[in-house]
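Dissemination and training. As part of the outreach component of the grant, students in the summer workshop were shown how a complex can be specified as a set of sequence lines and then modelled as a single object. The example used during the hands-on session is reproduced here so that future cohorts can follow it. Participants entered these lines:
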Amino acid sequence: DSGVTQTPKHLITATGQRVTLRCSPRSGDLSVYWYQQSLDQGLQFLIQYYNGEERAKGNILERFSAQQFPDLHSELNLSSLELGDSALYFCASSPTGNSNQPQHFGDGTRLSIL
Amino acid sequence: EDKVVQSPLSLVVHEGDTVTLNCSYEVTNFRSLLWYKQEKKAPTFLFMLTSSGIEKKSGRLSSILDKKELFSILNITATQTGDSAVYLCAANGVNNNDMRFGAGTRLTVKP
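and obtained this result:
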């Protein structure tokens, strides 16, 4: 158990809808990362937050947004969903967000778009 | 463009065999290389390597980094069926904080 908690575990919805994925980092970790893992793309970095502020952005679509709250939990919002958004979405956390620290991953949210 | 390439993509061995997984990287202002094991769910952290030539070891697993040739290897000795998983390699740069992952090596260990 990594200590990173993601909810829900599974989400099934339809095209055009909007969903929110939630992540609680490990106790003491200030930085949260979001990744998308699909069969044909592997693990792709989406966005990083540190102590409530956006720190780095990767291949995140404009239809996607995220935030980190004062209690350090984070939410990833996906809107106008398309079939291609079906994937496993992982959250990871690390203490300070520096690249010399390993990230620890949650179990992911499996999103299926019908 | 930054990239991480792992080989082989897939490997099938028998229990007791020794395997070597490869990872090459091209990352701007490289800082660290990480190995993860992914079974059904979350990638689980194995090693972080920042210095060349220093082997990191944990039980039957070991890893080393070559910063001159830009690659790392992960060795697993006396493999067991529980080692079956996808092994992911990721590289981190200094200036950007996103980890770039390779496609992974799917290891299957048969009894």
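The longest strand of chain A covers residues 42-50. Students were then asked to discuss how this feature might be tested experimentally.
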